[in-house]
Amino acid sequence: MTSPVKGGAAAAPPAPRTRKSVTGTRKIVAVGFLLPALVLLGALVVYPIGFSVYRSFFDKSGSNFAGLDNYVELFTDDTILTAVKNNAIWVVVAPTVATALGLIFAVLTERVRWGTAFKLIVFMPMAISMLAAGIIFRLVYEQDPGRGIANAVVVGVHDTFSDSAGYPKAHPLPVHPLKAGGGGTFVTKEPVRAGTEVLLPLVGVPPAKMPSDARPAQPAKTGDGTVTGTAWLDFTPGGGGKPNVIDPEELGLKGLTVEAVKDGKVVATTTAGADGRFSLPAAADGAQLRLPESNFKEPYNGVEWLGPSLVTPAIIGSYLWMWAGFAMVLIAAGLASVPRELMEAARVDGATEWQVFRRITVPLLAPVLAVVMVTLMINVLKIFDLVLIIPPGSSQADANVLALQLYRSSFGTDADLGVGSAIAVLLLLLVLPVMLFNIRRMRKETRR
């Protein structure tokens, strides 16, 4: 029945309402716009994840069901366990140090006029790809100090405080008046006498390895009561020289240590000058001259940065070079929003700068620090490029991480897609808790 209305006309039923979203858009329109993105998300994310989980339960060929065998191999294979251990080191060390460096840079750059320029320089490595950074640091960590800047610095500092001059390949010829004395030393075949020139010729030193300030060898001046002589490289470039004769183009062995030994005891010691000449006191009369082993030690060649023990810290160092700027920029943005009144009030109350930093600045920056830490943790779980490029083949196994092992297991010469899929699932499980923590933290921030 229709209810009567004024004029006798029946009232029309109300039109059905079209449901709209919060923004006022019809849901079917919203779904239409989201559908392409959802299709791409499913094809590029959801399907690969589902297929990886499925494939991880099959064997190498993919035709036989393997159950949990691939997951058991993850925790029994030494190579994969090394990758897991290194990933744990990365997750603990790299985000913590990068965040700490970013915090320090952000706080200190507020107090200098050129802070913006400093931030630009520190952030600049972010513009470089991981591949390029890996190539750069492969050269930085080169063992040869003439090529690797890291060892060039280390060797330079070492040589400043320790004499590294030596002639590691030097040795006498059978016709020379020297013989092997045991323990890497050389001694004169006969005792020496005061007033008689002593010749100590050696060979085996490339002219390019001679000290840059070595001068042409000169005959020693004999004197009453002293033992004098010359130690030189008995080799004439281009040939033509004579053994046991000081030729004009032959260089003195600068810095060569000469000891006088009597009855097994050292009675005098001296060092050859730039022209190879040396002089010993009268106590050396009748002694045998000995060239100690220290003359022939290998020169200090720096640190083996890419050796088995330091390769992972070295790669983490290259990662910090790139990502400390990222942490600094985010923390500096958070620091700009910190109320200055709180800091000034604390200083007025007598707080030191360290107390202001520890009790006010850091607590107020805690949300920003959490964002940086979580972002870097997710990033290092996927680290791949640097570990692939920087280590040489001899130590790459010691620097192995899960992402690199995933690549090797899936696409190596002896590929096992079952194990590779299991590693991919393990990485997903490791990333999920960090992502969930980040989502919960972001929701709490939104509610505020």
CATH A-level architecture of the largest domain:
Orthogonal Bundle
Cα-atom radius of gyration: 37 Å
In DSSP terms, counting alpha (H) and pi (I) runs of 4 or more, how many helices? Answer: 13
Number of domains: 3
CATH level-4 homologous superfamily of the largest domain: MetI-like
Report the β-strand fraction as a percent range. Answer: 5-15%
Overall spatial form:
elongated
- Termini Cα gap: 54 Å
Q: How many β strands by DSSP?
A: 8
Q: Which fold name fills CATH's third level, the topology of the largest domain?
A: MetI-like fold
The main sheet orders its strands as: 1-2-8-5-6
Structural class call reads: alpha+beta
Order of helices and strands: HHHHHHEEEEEEEEHHHHHHH
Write a structural description.
This protein is an alpha+beta fold. The protein has 3 domains: 20-55, no CATH class; 69-152 and 305-447, MetI-like fold, CATH 1.10.3720; 178-296, no CATH class. Helices cover 46% and strands 9% of the residues. The chain has helices at residues 27-55, 69-74, 78-108, 115-123, 130-140, 149-161, 311-336, 340-348, 353-364, 366-381, 385-389, 402-411, 417-447, and strands at 178-182, 185-188, 198-202, 227-233, 257-262, 265-271, 277-280, 288-291. The strands form 2 sheets. The protein has a 5-stranded antiparallel beta sheet, with no helix packed on it. A 3-stranded mixed beta sheet has the order 3-4-7, with no helix packed on it. Helix 1 (27-55) packs antiparallel against helix 13 and helix 7 packs antiparallel against helix 10 (366-381). The radius of gyration is 37 Å and the shape is elongated.
